[in-house]
């Protein structure tokens, strides 16, 4: 999942070049030698992406953003450069990463995750001619050259809660959050509300792996596995993790428990290469279509009509959804369709703060 809502983008030309990006863990994927690369050269659009903790390959949040970038590279012919984050890094490291992308001429630059909010605001103010996008964060103090790409995670999580409450045999379910933050509490709030809509007597065991400023809870499969095992030991047989790559550990723990089910997040985790071996234990995933937001942002920039302000992707706009890989929630389709209709029509208002 990985957290609820964020993205950032930047553009500007400079003279440091790719060497400065390498120092920040960036990976150049310039395709000017290809036919689509030629289009990029003609349009001059160079897109930089700064990943959140876990980076490309987390099978979750960052990978969803990466899919949008890959699609833009393939279909729009843009030149891209990717910069990886480090666990335990300082705020200055995030600023340096963004500055390096700007100086190397990447525009726009997309920041993946709310942890970039302060860094994006500072770098954007210093570079008013550069366009930035930040995923999963919106601030009243951010400058006008920053676009927020946000999601209604609580709505997709509500549907995950409906599925969990319908599937559980023990009448006990669990929720694991990577970092106790406003964003992840939206996942928790929606999930609990969805469970309660089916059966308010079902308890939802809740575990957060870390609290800010410790964000390692998004990149520690060992902690995720331990937390899931603790909930399984208390009788939970369906566990939803909104914890980035830490959720991979939770899925592993659930797969070792007969009759237990995991609910993935951000990407369709039953279809991810590193997790496909657990696909028969993944009930569904609350898919957060970060790839759609990233691609839409880049295409708008290429078309000369950039997105501005806050662009929210909700259930009605297909910004969030449930995966159906494996067919394990097919029997609840009517119930899930009814819940979806109630949300998109406005009949059901899903809370963004956990109730009770």
Describe the 3D structure.
Helix content is 38%, strand content 19%. It has eleven helices and 14 strands. The longest helix is centred in the middle third of the chain and has 17 residues, at 182-198. It comes from Kitasatospora atroaurantiaca. Residues 1-22 form the signal peptide. It is a lipid-anchor. Keywords: Cell membrane, Lipoprotein, Membrane, Signal.
Task: Determine and state the CATH class of the largest domain.
Answer: Alpha Beta
Shape: globular
Total tally of structural domains: 2
Largest sheet: 8 strands, mixed
Domain ABC transporter substrate-binding protein PnrA-like: 48-351
Membrane topology: Lipid-anchor
Family: Belongs to the BMP lipoprotein family.
Signal peptide: 1-22
Q: How is this fold's topology laid out?
A:
Elements: E1 6-7, H1 18-22, E2 26-28, H2 35-43, E3 46-50, H3 61-76, E4 79-83, H4 91-103, E5 109-112, H5 117-126, E6 132-136, E7 146-151, H6 153-167, E8 173-179, H7 182-198, E9 204-210, H8 221-233, E10 238-242, H9 246-255, E11 261-266, E12 282-288, H10 290-302, E13 310-313, E14 320-322, H11 333-345
Parallel strand pairs: 3-4, 3-5, 5-6, 6-7, 7-13, 8-9, 8-10, 10-11, 11-12
Antiparallel strand pairs: 1-6, 2-4, 12-14
Helix pairs in contact: 2-3, 3-10, 4-5, 6-7, 6-11, 8-9
Main location: membrane
InterPro entries: BMP_lipoprotein, Peripla_BP_I, PnrA-like
Domain ABC transporter substrate-binding protein PnrA-like: 48-351
